[in-house]
Amino acid sequence: MSGAGPRARQPARRISGPARAALSLLTILGATAVQAAEAPEVAQACLACHGDALAEGAPPIAGHSSNYIQLQLVFFRAGRRKNEIMQGVAEGLSDNDIRALGKYFASLPFPETKPPADTQADLTKAGETAALQHRCAACHGDTYLGIQAAPRVARLPEAYLAKALGDYRANTRPSSGGAAMTEVAGSLSDADIKALAHYLAVLP
Ligand code: HEC
Ligand code: HEC
Asked: How does pLDDT run across 97-120, given as a tens digit for each residue?
């Protein structure tokens, strides 16, 4: 990864025309290039499960909003979002670590991979119908890439999505956004959850 280099200095007054133009171009590029936030040391430990290869059960976290990531870490640390692995990880994090981790992972792009081939068209259709019925897109956006407190849910791993919906329904996971998901999931059947998870996982 290319860390933020030292900022280009203001060109000294005596530098001649072309050199000055080149330097100010560098300054402009440096100022506008989208750069990943500096990786806090503690982020290394996360990559074993949330890096390019995902550990079993672990979703990608890059590309979520900083707020969403921070909230989830606080929920895990407080034991309100129940998950043995993440509770163990989050226990060791300070508030400053959590802020830095949120900022860092939010600055990375979502790992775009091709959606898995859809071999269950009927299930996809059922998921689409359930999503319309429960107005999922009203909060998560028409393309399910997330809006404000509602995170991206498109193309997350299917098993993770099903588990997440089940956890909200069982109240082993709290929901920000005025308990939005606790309320939504309360009215989902097992068949709805299966279909919704499949539909979201294979979205093009
Ligand atoms: C040993 C594997 C492992 C490690 C290491 C790990 N995680 Fe996780 N993480 C998981 C699993 C599994 C889940 C899914 C938990 C669930 O189902 O609720 C998860 C979930 C999360 C979530 C919630 C994602 C979402 O979409 O709601 C965040 C945020 C997160 N981890 C951040 C981190 C950070 C930051 C670190 C490093 C400090 C880290 N994790 C280290 C396995 C791991
Ligand atoms: C009223 C707004 C609202 C509606 C409607 C809504 N959501 Fe959500 N959703 C949210 C918010 C806010 C969150 C973040 C909650 C949290 O803090 O965990 C969320 C989180 C999620 C997550 C967790 C993602 C992750 O990475 O762990 C999934 C999955 C999800 N929603 C799916 C759905 C589905 C499927 C529907 C329709 C059945 C739906 N949502 C309807 C607001 C909404």
From this structure: 999 999 999 999 998 878 778 999
Atom of ligand 2 nearest to the CA of 81: 18
Residue 6 burial (CB count, 10 A) = 6
Residue of 140, 183, 198 best suited for mutating to test ligand 2, as the one with most atoms within 8 Å of CB? 140
- Does the pTM surpass 0.85? The reply is yes
Structural domains of the chain sorted by starting position, each given as residue range(s) with its CATH number in brackets: 41-107 (1.10.760.10), 121-201 (1.10.760.10)
Nearest CA residue ID for atom 42, ligand 2? 150
| For ligand 1, atom 12: residue with the closest CA | 58
Query: At 27, is the pLDDT very low, low, confident or very high (cuts 50, 70, 90)?
Result: very low
Cα-based distances in Å from 190 to 84, 167, 187: 24, 12, 10
